[in-house]
């Protein structure tokens, strides 16, 4: 069986690489004991703002065997999205992950292909694919499987590649060889804490999600609070400040995923272009874009708040 475990593990990692994933790590499925009290405290202190969905499925979030019966392994995968080009200087800013097509569909397809390959090679392995809408603590699992460490910004960080990547999982009923966590390489650096425009990183490794610019510009459906007027640093959708200042992101290399190629208008639009965009143009110019999460009304609300 051990020879099989090794063979299956090597096959899965090689297949993940072939499908374009940056890296693949595997951990034993089970209850996340260390994360449980942290998550409970974070929710009790209301650091999730209006994101009430984070209170749902508390047990599932901490235990993948409740998502897949008999689950034995969590296969964590990273997919690079660092863009080869950035927006013109002086425009309203958009988080780099939203430059191209919606990542959910892109990653889901790759995960399904990986699961199909596993079943073709190994047999009818029960399993499910997860991208970030599901109640899975993807950063915790990625860290557990040695793909990086949790930085002071609460982003997963990796030596040599930084943090501009998506995290996804396959949870499977298959015993595999498990990776070990890596060590923390933040040291005494506080660049992310110092740079956050809204002081959302309230302590090292602790983010108040209800103060994050990404929360204000994407998740929050009501009016943006007036006390943050002038503090959003021209971010109109999401925010990359804590990643942009992180020294490990000096090593980021451009992605090779055609679906993540930036919409040309997104890179070239000036503030004036964004201010004048109509709902019809928005729908036509940005089909299948993550910007649709905020919808045209949300984008307009954010721009009006920034003006």
Automatic annotation (TrEMBL):
Residue ranges of every copy of the 4Fe-4S ferredoxin-type domain listed in the record: 174-206
Residue sites binding [4Fe-4S] cluster 1 per the record: 186, 189, 192, 246
Cellular location(s): Cytoplasm
CC per GO annotation: cytoplasm
Chain sites annotated for binding [4Fe-4S] cluster 2: 196, 212, 239, 242
Cofactor(s) named in the record: [4Fe-4S] cluster; cob(II)alamin
Cofactor note text: Binds 2 [4Fe-4S] clusters per monomer.
Active-site residues, as the UniProt record annotates them: 132
GO molecular function per UniProt: 4 iron, 4 sulfur cluster binding; cobalamin binding; epoxyqueuosine reductase activity; metal ion binding
Gene Ontology biological process terms from the UniProt entry: tRNA queuosine(34) biosynthetic process
Purpose: Catalyzes the conversion of epoxyqueuosine (oQ) to queuosine (Q), which is a hypermodified base found in the wobble positions of tRNA(Asp), tRNA(Asn), tRNA(His) and tRNA(Tyr).
Protein name: Epoxyqueuosine reductase
Organism per entry: Flavobacterium rivulicola
């Amino acid at each position: 069986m051990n020879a099989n475990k090794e063979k299956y593990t090597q096959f899965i990692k090689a297949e993940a690489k072939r499908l374009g994933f940056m890296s693949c790590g595997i951990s034993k499925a089970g209850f996340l004991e260390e994360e449980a009290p942290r998550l409970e405290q974070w929710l009790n202190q209301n650091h999730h703002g209006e994101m009430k969905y984070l209170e749902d499925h508390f047990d599932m979030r901490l235990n993948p065997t409740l998502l897949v019966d008999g689950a034995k392994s969590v296969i964590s995968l990273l997919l690079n999205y660092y863009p080869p080009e950035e927006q013109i200087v002086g425009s309203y800013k958009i988080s780099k992950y939203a430059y191209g097509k919606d990542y959910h569909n892109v990653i889901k397809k790759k995960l399904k292909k990986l699961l199909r390959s596993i079943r073709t090679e190994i047999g009818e392995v029960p399993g499910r694919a997860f991208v970030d809408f599901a109640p899975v603590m993807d950063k915790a699992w990625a860290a557990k499987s040695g793909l990086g460490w949790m930085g002071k910004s609460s982003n997963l960080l990796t030596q040599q590649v930084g943090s501009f990547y998506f995290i996804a999982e396959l949870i499977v009923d298959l015993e595999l060889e498990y990776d070990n966590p890596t060590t923390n390489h933040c040291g005494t650096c506080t660049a992310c804490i110092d740079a956050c425009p809204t002081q959302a990183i309230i302590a090292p490794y602790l983010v108040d999600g209800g103060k994050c610019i990404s929360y204000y510009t994407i998740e929050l459906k009501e009016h943006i609070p007036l006390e943050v007027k002038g503090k959003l640093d021209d971010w109109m959708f999401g925010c990359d400040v804590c990643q942009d200042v992180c020294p490990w992101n000096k090593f980021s290399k451009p992605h090779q995923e055609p679906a993540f190629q930036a919409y040309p208008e997104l890179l070239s639009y000036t503030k004036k272009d964004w201010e004048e965009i109509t709902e019809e143009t928005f729908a036509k110019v940005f089909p299948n874009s993550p910007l649709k999460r905020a919808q045209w009304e949300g984008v307009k609300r954010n721009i009006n708040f920034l003006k």
